[in-house]
Amino acid sequence: MSTGLQWPENFDTTSPPKKAPMPRKDYPETPDGRYFVSKGRLWRKTDPSLDDSERRAAVKALMQARRDVGRAETEAQERDARDRMDAAKKRLGERGPVWWDDGAPDETRKAPWNSSYAEWWDGLDDDARARGNPD
Q1: pLDDT tens-digit map of 86-107
Q2: Which ranges are annotated Basic and acidic residues under compositional bias (predicted)?
Q3: In-domain check, residue 80
Q4: What is the pTM (predicted TM-score) of this model?
Q5: Angle (deg, nearest 10), helices 52-71 and 75-92
Q6: Based on the structure, what is the number of domains in the chain?
Q7: 61, 62, 105, 110: which sits with the fewest CB atoms below 10 Å from its CB?
């Protein structure tokens, strides 16, 4: 049965499809470098004082734990993987005590327009706000 669809003449049907690279998300970042905005929420960035090898090790542990959540066959395995995710995020400074020392509170998960960053958020152009709040 024909659907009426045809492959373009130069389309290679003999090779497996290539995995497209993930595009880098260009989320707005707060001027102080503490947060980025995604889905209308502030998310704490990685502690910039971490040395590269420590950061890489924590990211590797985080990615493995995320994969293990998806592969978990029991609730105990999933709980273990989620605990390892949390530990890696704490190593990265994305959870737990804040990594800055000026006394500013943690505003993770707040909407930027309802935070101490409201003036900064209002000053962004429409494109930047759309990247941080696609809804």
Answers
A1: 999 999 999 999 999 999 999 9
A2: 23-32, 66-94
A3: yes
A4: 0.76
A5: 160
A6: 1
A7: 105
